Structure formats: structure tokens, C-alpha cells
Amino acid sequence: MFTLLTILSIVNAIPYQFYKRATTFTPCDTDSPNDITVTITPDPLIAGEKGTFNIVGTITNGTVNTGSQLVIELKDDADAVIGDPSTFDICASATCPITDLNLTQVIQLPDTLPNTFIIDVNIFDVNGDTLACATSAVPGA
Hints:
Helix content: under 10%
Strand order of the largest sheet: 1-8-7-4-5
Largest sheet: 5 strands, antiparallel
InterPro entries: Ig_E-set (IPR014756)
């Protein structure tokens, strides 16, 4: 009986399951004229590794044309960019003009990341105007 009670006590002391918080992106505060959905793999991102960003959305205000760019930035709590922004020519991998976005981009992450940081995903037109923007505040462990 004592052994059974000991085993039950140990089992109850073990956490049932750790629930990982998914990185959730929301529209930026910059009056983004179009909404995009962003998912990342791995989630959470791992410093020094590669991260895959999937960006999906429909551009109804503005146009993605030759010269439009996807920019992914990681920022610290003071809004300072961590490492170099990752900039991609959207039309290098898609036939432009496009209105339906379905982009996948892989970036090399910095060797170190702060516990808490911000991910900004921006789509700019040829003039540098924002077509879409999504952001996520990644909480520390």
C-alpha cells in the first residue's frame, strides 16, 4: 500500500504536459492597408538556425510589382534591429504583378536572440510604401 501511494504521489507531481505558446502575428500599428497571415517554423525560432516564414494574403490596396520587397526584421525591446534585416525581391520568385500572396522565405537567424523580441514582416511596394505588415512580440521563456 505504501508503494502504491508513493507511485501515485510521484505521478501527480509530474506536470501533465507543457503547452508551448505559438508565435501569433497581428497587423502592425502602421495603418497597414492589407492583412497578411504569417506562420514560422520552427516555432519558436532558434538562435543560430534557419527560420522559415510563410506569408499568405490578398493585396486589395496597392500592387505588388517589380521592385516590391518582403522585409523581415527582428527587434529588441528598445526597437533596435537585431542583426541585419532580411530583404527579398518578391518578383524574383513570383510572376508580377500579383495580388494573391503565398510566399515562403528562409532566413538565417542571429547567433543570439534576447529572451523577448519582436518580429516584423513587411511588404513594401516599389516606392517603399507599406502594402502589408504583421508583427509578433515573442515572450521570454
